[in-house]
Fold this protein.
Amino acid sequence: MPNSTNRSSVIKQAASTLHDGNRALLRGRETISKRHFDFESTIIKDDF
């Protein structure tokens, strides 16, 4: 019985770690796309 409980908590821990990783990845993507947009708008301003 303790073995199955332990396995369950390990799975839960892994799932929450994965979730945190995905959130960090998403946040990173937002930052990158924002920077890219800023970069593009700077280029457009320089053209005029």
